[in-house]
Amino acid sequence: MTAKWDLSFLYKGYDDPKIDEDLEQATKIADELESYHGKLKGGQISASELLNLFQQAEKVETLASKAVGYGALLFYQETSNEDHKALYARMQQRAVEIDNKLIWITLELNELHNEKVEEYLQDPVLVNYSHYIKVKRLNQPYLLSEKVEQVLLQKSLVGRNAWQKFYQEFTAAFEFEVEIEGEVKKMAPGEIYPLFRDPNPETREKVFKAYYQKYMDESIAISHCFNNIWKNHGQDVELRNYPTAMTPAHIRNQTEEKIVKTMIEIIKNNYSLVQEYYQAKAKLMGQGNKIKGSDLYAPLGKVIKYTWEDAKQMVLDAYSGFDPEIGEMAKGFFDRNLIDSEVRKTKRHGAFCMGIAPGIDPVLQMSFDGTPDGVATLAHEMGHGLHDMYSGSKQTIFNYNPPLVAAETASVFGEQILIDKMLKTLTDEDAKLKLLAGQLEDAIVTISRQTMYIFFEKECHEKGAKENLSANQMSEIWDKHIKDMYGDVVDFLPEQSWNWSTIAHFLDPRVFYCYAYSFGMLFVLGLYQKYLEEGESFIPKYKQILETGGSMFPVDMADYVGLDITLPEFWQAGFDYLRKLLKEFQNIVDSRA
Questions:
Q1: Angstrom distance (rounded) from CA 8 to CA 198
Q2: Which domain holds residue 55?
Q3: Which contacts of 180-187 are long-range, i.e. CB under 8 A and separated by 24 or more positions?
Q4: Residue-wise over 220-231: b if at least 16 C-beta within 10 A, else e?
Q5: Alpha-carbon radius of gyration of the chain
Q6: Which end of the chain is less crowded, N or C, counting CB atoms within 10 A of the terminal residue's CB?
Q7: Burial zone of 547 (CB within 10 Å; 0-12 exposed, 13-18 middle, 19+ buried)
């Protein structure tokens, strides 16, 4: 038995008249704010008037986010439902229209003279919006005229956003034909993913081949999606005169390019950890020093399956053991039916948490498969939900969402709490080996592999902005960067060269989205070491980090708990911790040789 969410706390259904009433109210407030239009850029309004402008704009954003979020959630839970598809498309259109009415606020904030900005920043009336003002002005060198910005926003509906939506809908409907025990079965995405970890190596290989073959068969449509993404971003870079293709990601993440470069360099320098781990796994599986590509996620030892109730209790026990208040908040997600964990055809692939706005419950979606990874995913998404709850208790919507590099803080921390609790209580060597393997593989996927994605994405953006890349060219670029990471340790199947085409993050409007995962996990490993050093005295600091939401730059957030993310040593410390786990794993493997 799994869980299905109840979204009636948002609206009663796709045809609820309250949806349009909320959007009409948002439009009305946005129109009323026109009285400030043209006055802000000249500093002709007082701090109190600017406060009112911000607060009214936040009402608009909350109402629009609620409607659009509801439309997205209905679409994600059943991507083939025509009513849901129509609502989501209409909500996106209305949101763009409303955003266009207020786009002038960002533009005029960036036209302000520095002296007036400082005056606003020093005024106690605006203390809760000082960070918001600073963040908005990060885009100052790259903004275009108001009319052009409005056109670009409107065109996004049939540009990048449209290609992303098409890809999601197109691939969610895929059926994969796999022969298992002599019977050909047709499987939806949510049904085939667990088989990547099937105990039977022949089944795993068949599943991998069938999975990637489907994407190969649909290469015309898929490569068209990706080429339009590369071109679209290339145009943005040229139009806005960004110094690099990654500049918008650094601005969005509120971090400096040199910090990201330092992190990426350290991660690449530690690719050897990936290779050493898979050499040990290959040895354990009797494959010598080279592992098959279809065995990367192979389970070690007997397969462990958990019920939904098992997973629920394990996650709640972990969070409650860390802090009773956090445990009680986690319990509320189950009590209020805020989780959809069913495996269904045409359901959006992947797991996520959607936090709509302060004062509105966040919701979690996943496809629970009963594996240890599924339990970890529940702990991960629950962490996002808790982050949203803490942020929403202290922040308004302008400061509600942390930048992506900090957005993984509570989610990865939650996973760490769960894994450490399990490691401490395990006495069975087989179970401990499996848990160590799971933690190391999760770190490899979250840190090293996500960074490898950045190298692939960067090369595709640079080349794809100038020419149309064939699917084979993208596969060649993928193979080059995958070899950098895994070396000669993995014998990949030919079909795995198409892995790039299965990664929806490359089509996300938030370009270079993936390094946020690497940043987030290494940041959390640093936080977790602080927790182990300080014990319970660290917990109030941790909660305060969650409460800051998006009201603080990541470098200042780290400094608050005594960490310096500008130093290479900070990023290397995470790998030092992982190497201790690797050594423990290797010792068990060697003892069985």
A1: 37
A2: 17-157
A3: 180/206
A4: eebbebbbbbbb
A5: 24
A6: C
A7: middle
Torsion sign across C-alpha atoms 411, 414, 420, 422:
negative
Angstrom distance (rounded) from CA 145 to CA 323: 50
Is residue 40 a part of any domain in this protein? yes
Q: Residue 372: is it exposed, middle or buried by C-beta count within 10 angstroms (0-12/13-18/19+)?
A: buried
Residue 133 counted as domain residue? yes
**Token output for 148:** 């052009």
- Counting Cα atoms < 13 Å in the Cβ hemisphere of 290 gives 6
Query: Judging by DSSP bridges, how do beta strands 352-354 and 363-365 pair with one another?
Result: antiparallel
For residue 301, pLDDT beyond 80: no
Number of DSSP helices (H) and strands (E) in the chain, helices first:
25, 7
> Three-class SS of residue 347?
coil
Beta strand ranges found along 454-521 (DSSP E): 490-491
Q: Are 409 and 253 in contact (CB under 8 A)?
A: no
Q: How many residues does the chain have?
A: 593
State yes or no: pLDDT of 302 exceeds 80: no
Neighbour tally for 327: CB within 10 Å: 17
The answer to the question of residue 96 being in a domain is yes
* Contact predicate 354/15, CB 8 Å: no
Amino acid, single-letter form, for residue 255: T
What's the CATH number where 55 sits? 1.20.140.70
Cα separation, 392 vs 200, in Å, equals: 46
Cα distance between residue 167 and residue 348, in whole Å: 11
Q: Which two tokens stand for residue 445?
A: 């996927």
End-to-end CA distance of the chain: 40
What sign does the dihedral 584-586-590-593 (CA atoms) show? positive
Burial of 68 (0-12, 13-18, 19+ CB in 10 A): buried
Classify strands 176-180 and 183-187 as parallel, antiparallel or unpaired.
Answer: antiparallel
Q: Could you read off the pLDDT of 140-162 as tens digits, one per residue?
A: 999 889 899 888 888 888 888 89
Total domains in the chain come to 1
Distance CA 129, CA 117 (A): 12
Q: Is residue 396 domain-resident?
A: no
Asked whether 575 and 582 are in contact (CB, 8 A), the reply is: no
List Cβ neighbours of 244 (8 Å cut-off, separation of 6 or more).
Answer: 237, 257
> Which structure tokens are listed for 423?
């490691």
Interior/surface letters 447-485, b for 16+ CB within 10 angstroms, e for the rest? bbbbbbbbbbbbbbbebbbeeebebeebbebbbebbeeb
| pLDDT tens digits for range 221-235 | 999 999 999 999 999
pLDDT for 63 equals: 98
Per-residue b/e over 15-26, b at no fewer than 16 CB within 10 Å?
Answer: ebeebeebbeeb
Of 363 and 513, the structure prediction assigns the larger pLDDT to 363
Which residue matches tokens 């290779």? 275
Average pLDDT, the chain: 93
Q: What are the φ and ψ backbone dihedral angles of 7, each rounded to 5 degrees?
A: -95, 10
